[in-house]
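Lab notebook, page 48
Experiment: co-folding of the full assembly
Goal: obtain a model of how the components sit together before planning crosslinking
Operator: M.T.
Materials (sequences as entered):
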Amino acid sequence: MQTTRTTPSRLAKRAHYDEVTIHPILDEALFCTVSYTIENQPMAIPTAFARKGDKIYIHGSVGSHFIRTIENGAPVCISVMLTDGLVLAKSAFSHSVNYRSVVIFATAEKVTDETEKMEALALITDHLVPNRWADLRPTTDSEMRKTTVLAFSLAEASAKVRTGGPNDDPEDLTLPTWSGVIPLKTIRLAPVPAEISKAIPLPDYLA
Amino acid sequence: MQTTRTTPSRLAKRAHYDEVTIHPILDEALFCTVSYTIENQPMAIPTAFARKGDKIYIHGSVGSHFIRTIENGAPVCISVMLTDGLVLAKSAFSHSVNYRSVVIFATAEKVTDETEKMEALALITDHLVPNRWADLRPTTDSEMRKTTVLAFSLAEASAKVRTGGPNDDPEDLTLPTWSGVIPLKTIRLAPVPAEISKAIPLPDYLA
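Observation: model returned without errors.
Model output:
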């Protein structure tokens, strides 16, 4: 949703407020950074998350100072960035980055419904490793009691996206300097079994 | 430096305060997230940066709301995370992430010395693409006037690092579930020339 604080002061043409842009970025990014404030001091914690509909979920220990600070509705800013490429222009000034980022302004809602809480934990697990949850033993009551799940609305989310090649000043176009894009990609390497799992076949969902 | 706010409430054994741990994380990460506060609302901006000694530099447009908010010494929290692997345990609860993160609490010093400012821009450029700066035409006075460079001390920086395989509860060790690590890596793909640079040989530093 476009609000005063989701409207960028710079390069507003790169801003998007539609879920068709925002949701896939949130679904592709594995981690977000949650920024919050303690007595005017900004703090930031990178953490796993998952989206369902127009909400995202994070989880943490019930004893975490971070979780306890934000669980009662302190304002947070959740940011995600996917970096797709380094954009090399003819001049240093026109160098840029191809990225897809999302910023969410929200306050936490503590998830107290046990079914929604369990589903959120499954979503967070499967967001990192699709189909993992179904392969795991049930989560125990004790584990559930030690875990807080927080939900955040995407109502005040915005995306910013840059794609394409360099935008050089006209007077630089004839310079003999190489220009273009170096694509960046995050990849998963072959799974490395724990010592105790060396005899266990790698599940299909990890192959 | 270990201070009250750089001491984690959780897993303090993963915290580090020495530059031998902190500097390589900052040198490997391409982007940081700068969190700041406007009237108690946390905000966050991902941006490029570079380290020199016990300082990091960022840059931005002189007209950027973000830059103008923090350039006069508002408290910021700068965070960086490198994700090295997804740690799959026998239980959902023991799943984890191998990561190397740095959090810096600091306030901006605006770099007004022209030599230091130019050097910072070179460092930021070469941090993303080593040896790029020397291949570029000189930055003009007009470009310098449009750019603000901010420096932040690493005095109150801390790192948090997790490595290794899953740590399962003893009673889960005999479960038939596969456990181990899925390594994550960010790679650079082959450079893609801009249309106007197709006839220009790829420089050695990009090969």
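Interpretation: Residues 100 and 161 of chain B are 4 Å apart (CA to CA).
Next step: discuss with group before ordering constructs.
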